[in-house]
UniProtKB/TrEMBL annotation:
Membrane as UniProt keyword: no
Superkingdom to which the source organism belongs: Eukaryota
Protein name per its UniProtKB record: Gnk2-homologous domain-containing protein
Keyword Ligase: no
Pfam families: Stress-antifung
Amino acid sequence: MPNLTGKQHLLRLSIISILLLKTTGADFMYYSCETDGNYTTNSTYRRNLDITLSTLPATNTGFGFFNSSTGQGTDTVNSAALCRGDVEPALCRSCLNNSVVRLREVCPNQKGAIIYYDECWLKYTNNTILGNTAQGGGVFSFNTQNVSDQARFNFAPGALLNRLVTGS
């Protein structure tokens, strides 16, 4: 690894700080608190939630996907998180940490919650996450800017999907 001069080191630290501030200061796009269960502050579920959310960042598969489970029976906590593919690891960790804090603020004592940021999403629940084919909790966003070439804009996603299907 090459030695960095003081200015290069300062520049890299500045860039990382700006990226971290972008997520830390950003507001979430959407959140949802599950309404099928609460936990109490000193409960086993709360302890399992604390363990699961604190160990989640260490479960990265190398592709920005995280999952962790702790506990048994009705005190089981399952969690999953995903960072956008172009997000750097430091920004991903910052987004996940911020997600944990915000979910505890907006969904206190809820056994399940999900939050979406531009860079990541995080979910925890006492229900199964992986392998569950139930749908829901999606977020739709739109851009109010005009598209200069609407025909090309509408054609491009379909063409990409056709190439993906053909290649698989």
